[in-house]
């Protein structure tokens, strides 16, 4: 299984909005509404930001929004803050009854 | 408080065996899938596999099938990840994580979808070197 495709890096200025894409296939992203997004700060464990494409767990800022169209999902971060600088990963359920992650995107603010 | 606490740093030689642990607290251990994620230093996350403590059902990523064993001890709310023949390429940080799931039934066919990893352990660092 190949990892889902994410851009290696994105950048933005404080207050701006950015979008990170996550491209898969009909056997993962396109076939199921079980896409999740994670934030990982350096040296820390990942944190769940979005699940089931658009849902935020309690305590996650509404500046983080998820969406999906076809075989691609996206994470949009609005009102960028310095603390948003981190690595971001998407994941999806797959037709093999497994999960697969994206390669990760480094966000620089 | 819902928490996963993992065993610590391990330094092993190639060919040795290893079993690392992940102790859960603050929730019903048997009600959630729990799995393992590998992160090679400087690289991304890789999903390894998952187990449902209630009935010991397991599912492995094809990349890790046959390379590791995932197990649980329900009596002490602990999940394990085990190797029998470590390689230098197993050097990584290993995270355990609780998985959300959703069960659907379509025309009598029951399917379990596991997805969001909502609680993570702090990570166990494994170094394999001669």
Core attributes:
heterodimer; A: 109 residues; six-stranded mixed beta sheet; three-stranded antiparallel beta sheet; globular; B: mainly beta; seven-stranded mixed beta sheet; four-stranded antiparallel beta sheet
Topology at a glance:
The complex is a heterodimer of chains A (109) and B (130).
Chain A: E1 9-11, E2 18-23, E3 35-40, E4 47-50, E5 64-69, E6 72-77, E7 86-93, E8 99-101, E9 105-108
Parallel strand pairs in A: 1-9
Antiparallel strand pairs in A: 2-6, 3-4, 3-7, 5-6, 7-8, 7-9
Chain B: E1 3-6, E2 10-12, E3 18-25, E4 33-39, E5 45-52, E6 57-60, E7 69-73, E8 78-83, E9 92-106, E10 109-120, E11 124-128
Parallel strand pairs in B: 2-11
Antiparallel strand pairs in B: 1-3, 3-8, 4-5, 4-9, 5-6, 7-8, 9-10, 9-11
Enumerate how many helices of chain A there are, as a single number.
0
Low-confidence stretches of chain B: none
Distance between the termini of chain B: 40 Å
- Total beta strands of chain B: 11
Structural class of chain A: mainly beta
Radius of gyration of chain B: 15 Å
- The fraction of residues assigned to DSSP E strands of chain A is 35-45%
Low-confidence stretches of chain A: none
Biggest beta sheet summary of chain A: 6 strands, mixed
Average pLDDT figure of chain A:
97
- What is the molecular shape of chain A? globular
Quaternary organization = heterodimer
Number of strands of chain A: 9
Chain pair with largest interface: A-B, 28 and 27 residues
**Nearest-integer average pLDDT of chain B:** 96
- Head-to-tail CA distance between termini of chain A: 32 Å
Order of helices and strands of chain B: EEEEEEEEEEE
User: Counting H and I runs of at least 4 residues, what is the number of helices of chain B?
Assistant: 0
């Amino acid at each position: 299984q190949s990892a889902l495709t994410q851009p290696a890096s994105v950048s933005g200025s404080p207050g701006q909005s950015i979008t990170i894409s996550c491209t898969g296939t009909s056997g993962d992203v396109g076939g199921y509404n079980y896409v999740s997004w994670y934030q990982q700060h350096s040296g820390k464990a990942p944190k769940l930001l979005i699940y089931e494409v658009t849902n935020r767990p309690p305590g996650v800022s509404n500046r983080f929004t998820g969406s999906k169209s076809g075989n691609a999902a996206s994470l949009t971060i609005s009102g960028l803050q310095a603390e948003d600088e981190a690595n971001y990963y998407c994941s999806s359920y797959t037709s093999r009854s497994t999960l697969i992650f994206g390669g990760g995107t480094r966000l620089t603010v | 408080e819902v928490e996963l606490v993992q065993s610590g740093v391990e330094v092993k030689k190639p060919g040795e065996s290893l079993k690392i642990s992940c102790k859960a607290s603050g929730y019903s251990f048997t009600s959630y899938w729990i799995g393992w994620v590998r992160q090679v230093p400087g690289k991304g996350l890789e999903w390894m596999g998952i187990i449902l403590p209630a009935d010991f059902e397991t599912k492995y990523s094809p990349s890790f099938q046959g390379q590791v064993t995932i197990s649980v001890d329900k009596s002490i709310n602990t999940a394990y990840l085990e190797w029998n023949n470590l390689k230098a390429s197993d050097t990584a940080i290993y995270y355990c994580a609780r998985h959300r799931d959703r069960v659907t039934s379509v025309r009598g066919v029951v399917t379990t979808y596991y997805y969001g990893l909502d609680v993570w352990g702090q990570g166990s660092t494994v170094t394999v070197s001669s």
